[in-house]
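RNA pol II transcription cofactor
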Amino acid sequence: MTTTRTTAKVVYARETPEGVGATVRRSIGTPALRNLSPFLMLDHATIGPGAGFPDHPHRGQSTVSYVLGGMWQHEDFTGTTGQLAKGDVQWMTAGRGIVHSEMPLFDPDPSKREDTEALQLWVDLPADKKFIEPSYQEKKAADIDTAHPADGVTVTVISGESHGVTGFVRPVGGCWFLDYKLSKDGASAFQPIPKGWTAFVYVITGKLQIGEDATPVDKYHTAVLSAEDDQDGVLLTRPDGTEGETRFVLIAGEPLDQPVVQYGPFVLNNQRQVMEALSDYGKGENGFERAPGWKSKIGSKMQV
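Structure:
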């Protein structure tokens, strides 16, 4: 016997400027939706020529970047580089410290240029993992497994489990990241979620009915799911009459019983650790030894 989660809170992802010339729709990480442990921030970014996220540091969290359209590139001070196209994903664990650049990549032919569209999720690290060595994983769309639990339902399993398919990422701290596409009216699937985990959906296109709720969730909205003891998953349905494909990500993770003190890209457990992060970055110490003088190639070009 399965019992579905329901919608506990819905937040609209409003457009806001971020980086250099970029625009993001942010829901998690705004005053309307904070303290959703282990999740810190969710951005839905659209990045055109002359915009991006040049060299900047991180400490204490993981970032997940999932490309929805166009192309994306990464470079960090460990020497790691990566280029991602539509459907590709990168999972970076900042740990004790990393400096990187994230920039769009465009076809040299102006007539073929396409804005980059991507989701980026920040996931908090457990206190005992805050100072591990940084790491980076990426996967191409063709190598990411999918599940087909019902007619008109496709699930791209980046991390976690869905209908017999296990994702390639084994993230520190634990987090599921599933990309659902419902291509037909009435298409429906029940997604199991570990009991006690924080879970939410972000609707990218179309409309989504959650559980037995009569009011569907519209695109650009994040819906936080209930977490009652008897709820072992969530029923997800495309309402009849929805125009176009319903596409959303379902993300779930085990909440962390720890304080969160954040100062920009540094996410620690107390104010002293934040001050130490600022000092370490400025002095090039304790994980930031490679930061002084380092400049990425992709960030300095601000590719157009």
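The first helix runs from residue 271 to 283.
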